[in-house]
């Protein structure tokens, strides 16, 4: 059966109208969807950022163009590394690559390496990583790298922690990422969070009977408590200095300061006591007797163990310690007044060398007795080495400090003692520790 | 239908005699083969480079075949006067147009299949001969210690020889649904590219019904350009409206521009919809996606492609029906 010519034309015309109408309707809906999800950057621009123009000119082959620019950027990095080491133009290249191929993870990380590590422009490197972090919402690697840049290159622990927390929540984050973030929590003064995380790691290590994780976590918990205690003493140090107009000589002078009155802090011994009791309740071997690394940490007293025993129910509804983390954490917190105990059995002291020293790291102001002694040994060792060197140059013993340093030696002795130099023997000693 | 098929097969036979086709195919295969060497220049993500280049080559050379073969199909029939022998037979003109279209489409798809097999073979072979696998082969770990095997060199070459054939075999079956992590959902990407090329081919046929090969090539290429910029046209229209402080505040030439662009973006084919390459290479944004590198095919987009092809072919038929061959 054949259709007459006019009818056939009419049929084809009607089919054309129908097809066009359906296609246009679908297209209209698709465009509405596109309009709802605007691009990361405005892509219609024939001036300004080159990425927008290249993106339009790539005609859908953005990924291939990005790949060739990527190879070019690697060459450019090598070339500039061997010549003027001006990385700024390479930054634009990486910006363009990541605009064309927003999911190219290596372009973000390598770009940051070029701009931040090599070029010293960490802020710009972070900006590139920020872009990648917002694009690749499941990957941990980019925020983790941003964390590295912020902490180890820029020294901004708070910013590093922010990136770290994002990294640890990403879908593919390995289990070691939260542990590193816990370290940053402690470094940035978030002691509750850091202590909680490391406690979690310790409990995890005990549950899994993982000796390495247990050892590292135990050490980290103790370090977190140490850092927390030092921070509390440093607050009192500031209060004392501000109230009296002069720095304290001993830590004991700080005991009456408001910062050291009825403050909350984690107790290492309470934590160990609680875990010990829970281990027993679960029918597991004693933590205090079987873990060799426990020896370096102060153990709970029998009274503390008895208190923990009394505070723990006889039957446990769970089979693992990890489920009891909140209970353990809350129990380890305690209120106290005065100088906090040092978790490794040492005592806190003030390092006089750092008092009033403008470039001093606050971490070195309040130290343990052992650290202060080591510090004194280090200074003495350095002084003796310099003096010996000078003696070799002169061919005789230097007659004074000035002959060694060409200026006065003003560094305060860590214990507040004096430096003694004997020109006859060229021996240097400290009055506080003449035995060293 | 039989007539359309006969013309299509005849068109296919005619197209495979076209030397341009072979040049394009060889060039595409060379690029894909070379991609494995190019990827070695990269300090990271070499697999991504091979996939990008391979998928883009399949799409782009498919497009070039559509242009350089498609534009001559109808023109040559008219130029050589062979059209008279066809229109004098009981064959409708629209059957002729459709036959030509499907013949060209078969040509393109056969070429895409050859390119895909080659591309998959490159991927499988590279994956099978990765440094780790070769190390495990010639320097296997026994009780935690790596120990070299005897005849490591001959084993090395024999393994490559064997893997070459296995990769080729896997590449062929990948066309029919088999996949490994390295080729997961790549056929979907190529399938969507094929649908995009069906639109471009329809346009090539449309233009060749009323113009010279050169003009047809230019028109087809411009269609390809505009089709890829379709979503950018939307951004441009939005920007015009935004800069004016709203659509109602548009004035002067901006009003014309706005409506011209709005109409253009609705009637031009949105080829970006058929570009799924980045989805095959990276993880999906969608949290509900079942697997990584999941390429979702939206049936509406497929319907859009098919309907669009239908519309362009109808237009081609209408134009060709009214064409006077005297």
Description:
The complex is a heterodimer of chains A (436) and B (326). Chain A is mostly helical and 436 residues long. Chain A has a domain of 80 residues. Chain A is 59% helix and 5% strand. Chain A contains 17 helices and six strands. In chain A, the strands form three sheets. Chain A has a two-stranded antiparallel sheet. A two-stranded antiparallel sheet of chain A has the order 3-4. Chain A has a two-stranded antiparallel sheet with strand order 5-6. In chain A, helix 6 runs antiparallel to helix 7 and helix 8 runs antiparallel to helix 9. About 2% of the residues of chain A have low confidence. By secondary structure, chain B is mostly helical. Chain B has one domain. A two-stranded antiparallel ribbon of chain B has the order 1-2. Chain B is flat, with a radius of gyration of 24 Å. Helix content of chain B is 74%, strand content 1%. In chain B, helix 2 packs antiparallel against helix 3.
């Amino acid at each position: 059966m054949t259709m007459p010519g006019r009818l056939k034309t009419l049929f084809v015309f009607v089919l054309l109208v129908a097809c066009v109408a359906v296609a246009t309707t679908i297209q209209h809906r698709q465009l509405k969807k596109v309009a709802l999800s605007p691009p990361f950057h405005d892509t219609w621009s024939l001036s300004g950022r080159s990425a927008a123009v290249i993106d339009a000119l790539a005609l859908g082959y953005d990924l291939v163009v990005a790949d060739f620019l990527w190879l070019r950027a690697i060459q450019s990095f090598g070339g500039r590394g061997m010549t003027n080491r001006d990385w700024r133009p390479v930054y634009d290249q990486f910006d363009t690559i990541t605009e064309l191929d927003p999911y190219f993870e290596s372009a973000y990380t390598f770009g940051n390496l070029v701009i931040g590590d090599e070029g010293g422009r960490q802020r710009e490197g972070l900006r590139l990583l920020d872009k990648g972090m917002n694009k690749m919402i499941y990957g941990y690697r980019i925020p983790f790298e941003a964390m590295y840049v912020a902490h180890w290159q820029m020294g901004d622990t708070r910013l590093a922690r922010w990136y770290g927390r994002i990294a640890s929540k990403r879908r593919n984050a390995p289990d070691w990422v939260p542990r590193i973030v816990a370290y940053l929590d402690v470094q940035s003064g978030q002691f509750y969070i850091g202590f909680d995380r490391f406690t979690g790691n310790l409990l995890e290590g005990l549950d899994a009977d993982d000796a390495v994780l247990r050892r590292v976590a135990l050490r980290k918990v103790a370090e977190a408590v140490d850092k927390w205690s030092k921070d509390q003493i440093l607050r009192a140090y500031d209060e004392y200095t501000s109230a009296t107009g002069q720095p304290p000589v001993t830590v004991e002078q700080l005991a009456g300061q408001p910062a050291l009155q009825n403050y909350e802090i984690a107790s290492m011994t309470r934590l160990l006591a609680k875990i010990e009791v829970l281990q027993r309740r679960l029918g597991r071997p004693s933590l205090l007797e079987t873990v060799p690394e426990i020896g370096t940490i102060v153990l709970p007293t029998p009274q503390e163990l008895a208190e923990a025993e009394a505070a723990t129910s006889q039957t446990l509804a769970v089979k693992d310690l990890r489920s009891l983390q909140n209970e353990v954490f809350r129990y380890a917190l305690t209120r106290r007044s005065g100088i906090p105990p040092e978790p490794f059995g040492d005592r806190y002291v003030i390092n006089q060398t750092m008092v009033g020293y403008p470039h001093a790291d606050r971490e070195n102001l309040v130290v343990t007795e052992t650290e202060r002694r080591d510090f004194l040994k280090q200074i003495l060792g350095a002084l003796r080495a310099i003096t010996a060197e000078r003696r070799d140059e002169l061919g005789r013993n230097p007659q004074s400090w000035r002959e060694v340093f060409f200026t006065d030696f003003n560094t305060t002795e860590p214990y507040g003692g004096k430096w003694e130099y004997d020109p006859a023997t060229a021996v240097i000693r400290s009055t506080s520790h003449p035995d060293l | 239908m039989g007539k359309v098929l006969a013309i299509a097969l005849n068109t296919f036979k005619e197209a495979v005699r076209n030397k341009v086709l072979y040049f394009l195919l060889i060039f595409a295969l060379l690029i894909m083969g070379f991609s494995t060497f190019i990827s070695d220049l990269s300090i990271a993500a070499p697999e991504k480079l091979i996939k990008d280049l391979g998928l883009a080559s399949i799409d782009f050379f498919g497009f070039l075949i559509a242009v350089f073969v498609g534009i001559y199909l109808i023109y040559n029939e008219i130029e050589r006067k062979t059209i008279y022998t066809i229109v004098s037979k009981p064959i409708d003109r629209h059957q002729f147009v459709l036959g030509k279209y499907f013949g060209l489409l078969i040509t393109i798809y056969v070429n895409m299949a050859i390119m895909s097999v080659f591309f998959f073979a490159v991927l499988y072979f590279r994956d099978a001969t990765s440094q780790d696998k070769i190390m495990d082969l010639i320097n296997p770990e026994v009780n935690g210690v790596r120990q070299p095997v005897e005849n490591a060199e001959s084993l090395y070459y024999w393994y490559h020889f064997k893997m070459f054939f296995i990769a080729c075999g896997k590449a062929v079956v990948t066309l029919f649904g088999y996949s490994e992590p390295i080729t997961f959902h790549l056929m979907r990407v190529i399938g969507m590219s094929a649908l995009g090329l069906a639109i471009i081919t329809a346009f090539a046929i449309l233009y060749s019904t009323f113009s010279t090969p050169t003009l047809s090539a230019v028109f087809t290429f411009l269609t390809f350009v505009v089709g890829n910029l379709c979503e950018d046209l939307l951004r441009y229209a939005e920007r015009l409206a935004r800069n004016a402080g709203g659509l109602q505040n548009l004035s002067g030439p901006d009003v014309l521009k706005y409506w011209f662009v709005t109409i253009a973006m609705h009637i031009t084919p949105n080829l970006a919809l058929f570009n799924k390459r980045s989805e095959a290479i990276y993880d999906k944004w969608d949290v509900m996606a079942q697997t990584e590198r999941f390429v979702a095919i939206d049936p509406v987009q497929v319907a859009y492609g098919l309907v669009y092809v239908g519309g362009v072919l109808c237009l081609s038929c209408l134009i060709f029906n009214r064409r006077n061959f005297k």
